[in-house]
């Protein structure tokens, strides 16, 4: 940041929002065209993932007493840390008699089956073959080639993030009855923000939509163009001006760009305003079907915040106290967004979806 930037930056990032009643805010249903959302969704799902799926938060896979277990696309997966702290992953079914390895014990970085004592150190053994695993410092990933069916990539497709030494991360997780595309479609509908989440967002205006979206005669949104590409380098994002509510009429205005680096991820990049270069990554992981045959999807959202203000250093120093607060805020928003995604899947499954 230059000295001129520092002069222009307000000492206090808060602004007083306009006192507009919920029902009197600008209507967005004409701008939120299904064709735009569908086009962005198709473009995202056509991108390669290399068969990588998010397991959960990196810190959830600890050197504890038991492996971390999750079912992805019907495949039982376990993950753990070996003695050196390296992330390991593999099938969650014991190759001997099928014991659930998520209930196994961890002894000095080795998985010990609780049925008959078969031991797995992360290398192929007794018919058990490991899955490639990757720890990006915030999230733990596993590569499932048989499930994904794509040409494999050595690492997951990741967006650019703030410097870890100058940022604070928190991971929120939830599950819903829907498919990953329903979660991604929700993220590609920024127009719902101030209507569905009036407790969090106000003054939301979509400035630009991805150029790949079809030109169906819509009038482009007014306002200044976005200044440069998002942090990921992509040029096909939704550009949104929005104010985050803090308390009362106090808001923090920012410009954000939503992009999809791979088919099951949408990233919100803060490109202007307070917290510039911060990101919110929303990852959708298919879990498989529930007892009724309905698909379940995990939402794993990583908030990676940064700021050049001196007070942010103090916030980072109490990260364990800040993370629950960040997860609480994310959880309130996702309570509504999962209802959106579940409703979308319900209508699609019954052939009633109007989009």
Account of the 3D structure:
The protein has 355 residues and is an alpha+beta fold. Helices cover 21% and strands 32% of the residues. It contains seven helices and 17 strands. The strands form four sheets. Strands 1, 11, 12, 13, 14, 15, 16 and 17 form an eight-stranded antiparallel β-sheet that branches. Helix 4 crosses helix 7. The longest helix is centred in the last third of the chain and has 31 residues, at 319-349. It is globular, with a radius of gyration of 22 Å.
Mean pLDDT: 89
N- to C-terminal distance: 44 Å
Number of distinct helices: 7
Q: What's the order of the H and E elements?
A: HEHEEEEEEEEEHEHHEEEEEEHH
**Percent helix range:** 10-25%
Instruction: Summarize the main sheet.
Output: 8 strands, antiparallel
Going by helix content, strand content and strand pairing, the class is alpha+beta
Low-confidence stretches: 213-229
Silhouette: globular
Percentage of residues in strands: 25-35%
Radius of gyration computed on alpha carbons: 22 Å
Number of strands: 17
């Amino acid at each position: 940041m230059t000295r001129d930037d520092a002069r222009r930056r307000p000492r206090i990032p808060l602004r007083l929002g306009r006192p507009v009643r919920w029902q009197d805010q600008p209507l967005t249903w004409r701008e939120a065209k299904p064709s735009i959302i569908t086009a962005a969704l198709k473009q995202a799902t056509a991108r390669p993932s290399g068969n990588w799926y998010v397991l959960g938060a990196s810190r959830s896979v600890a050197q504890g007493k038991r492996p971390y277990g999750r079912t992805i696309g019907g495949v039982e997966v376990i993950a753990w840390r070996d003695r050196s702290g390296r992330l390991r992953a593999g099938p969650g079914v014991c190759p001997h008699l099928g014991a659930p390895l998520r209930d196994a014990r961890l002894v000095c970085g080795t998985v010990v089956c609780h049925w008959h004592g078969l031991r797995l150190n992360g290398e192929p053994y007794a018919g058990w073959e490991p899955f490639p695993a990757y720890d990006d410092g915030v999230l733990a990933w596993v590569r499932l080639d048989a499930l994904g069916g794509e040409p494999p990539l050595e690492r997951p497709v990741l967006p650019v993030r703030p410097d870890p030494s100058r940022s604070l991360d928190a991971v929120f997780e939830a599950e819903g009855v829907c498919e990953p595309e329903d979660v991604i479609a929700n993220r590609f509908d920024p127009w719902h923000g101030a209507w569905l989440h009036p407790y969090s967002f106000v003054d939301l205006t979509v400035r630009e939509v991805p150029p790949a979206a079809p030109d169906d005669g819509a009038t482009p949104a007014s306002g200044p163009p976005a200044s440069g590409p998002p942090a990921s380098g992509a040029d096909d994002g939704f550009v949104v001006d929005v104010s985050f509510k803090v308390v009362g009429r106090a808001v923090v205005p920012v410009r954000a760009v939503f992009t999809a680096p791979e088919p099951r991820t949408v990233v919100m990049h803060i490109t202007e305003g307070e917290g510039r270069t911060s990101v919110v990554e929303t990852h959708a992981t298919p879990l498989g079907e529930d007892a009724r045959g309905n698909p379940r999807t995990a939402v794993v959202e990583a908030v990676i915040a940064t700021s050049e203000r001196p007070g942010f250093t103090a916030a980072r120093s109490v990260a364990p106290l800040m993370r629950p607060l960040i997860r609480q805020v994310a959880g309130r928003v996702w309570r509504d967004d999962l209802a959106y995604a579940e409703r979308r899947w319900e209508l699609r499954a019954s052939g009633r979806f109007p989009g």
